[in-house]
Amino acid sequence: MEHKRTTLKPHDRLFQNGTDNTEHIELVHSGEDYFLRLEKLIAKAEKEIHLQTYIFENDETGNRIAACLKKAAQRKVKVYVLLDAYGSAALPDSFADDMVQHGILLRFFSPLFSLNNFYIGRRMHHKIAVVDKKIALIGGINIADKYYGTGAAEPWLDYAVQLNCPAAKDLQILCSDYFFKKGSSKKIPPVLHSAGSALVGILQNDWLQRKTEVCDAYTNAFIHAKKEIVIVGSYFLPGSRIAKALKKACKRGIKTTVILAGISDVPLVRRATEHLYFSFLNHHMRIFEWNKSVVHGKAAVVDNKWSTIGSFNLNSLSCYGSIEMNVEVHSVNFAKILRADFEMVISQCSEITKGSLRQRAGIFNKLGNWISYQMVRTAMLFLTFLPHLRFLKNYRL
């Protein structure tokens, strides 16, 4: 059975201190910041690249990254690309074939159907790039124009971190295991690596393989919060476990703020989340809606000392269906940087209060939100039920 993380306290983990004074962790934003870093990493690769992402699109951004990967392969760098078969279903066969012909080792995670399984409820949701076991980008940013932005539209609001520390080696091992279909065969122990003055850990979530580290980390962070919780949440529909931890934190007087989508690429989910607004406000949460672009970020800061960024959404699908990966950071300095960024986002948001919510919450709007909530919850129950069936099949005595 996989080791389950049950506490956030650093002294309860293994430690592995690095010796390279250049080790560090940096906050990365969607848009040019992320993609210029990614191109630079690929260009400097000497031996091996692992790129794993849910969505890879055949657009300007996708073609730019593909061109960089092909150049790396031509330099005899081993390039491994793992894409989700559902998230990247729109990628043309000709695009994929061209990558393979240029020497890229490309695989799609789990076709929707096989002879024995129906895979739609369990998707590979990683957004990771690792180079030479030394440097990595991990977060919530897919490879597509909407994450880069255009002259007419801002990039979707999202985050990643750049790691130049021993945690990158852990990530490359995990990526290799997933690429070669050994995702559950090797265990990375719960190590906190040094990254300059910060401590960095890799969190996995794959309920089918009994890995619930991201869900555990969020829950424990909320349970142990002393002063403040700030969350950027796309597709924000926390399940009972995380919702209970959040509500208890609010009852203890913890200042809790959520930054949510004013506009969304999945309007049904946004309306389902809005159905919960009165409940959030009744628990004294502050709600801010970002309306300048789609909110796609999955990040949080607790007490200005613990942070997490990654692919994990605060909903049941991420908890029990998809394969997710986050980075956790124990660092006052990094938490302050991320918290300041959240504050800048908040300054450009619209705050939702009970008064403003009543103004737009007419009977038909309330009914539409309730119907959306029931539909989304039912869909998530169905999608997470399918992996549960596979779990029972695999582990039945």
TrEMBL record:
Q: Name one Pfam family in it.
A: PLDc_2
Q: Membrane-spanning regions, if any?
A: none
User: What InterPro entries does the annotation carry?
Assistant: PLD-like_dom (IPR025202), PLipase_D/transphosphatidylase (IPR001736)
- Mention one GO molecular function: phosphatidyltransferase activity
- The segment(s) forming the PLD phosphodiesterase domain are 120-147, 291-318
Query: Which superkingdom does the taxonomy of this entry point to?
Result: Bacteria
Query: PROSITE patterns given for it?
Result: PLD
What PANTHER family does the record tag this protein with? CARDIOLIPIN SYNTHASE, PHOSPHOLIPASE D
User: Under which name does UniProt file this protein?
Assistant: Phospholipase
Which organism encodes this protein? Flagellimonas sediminis
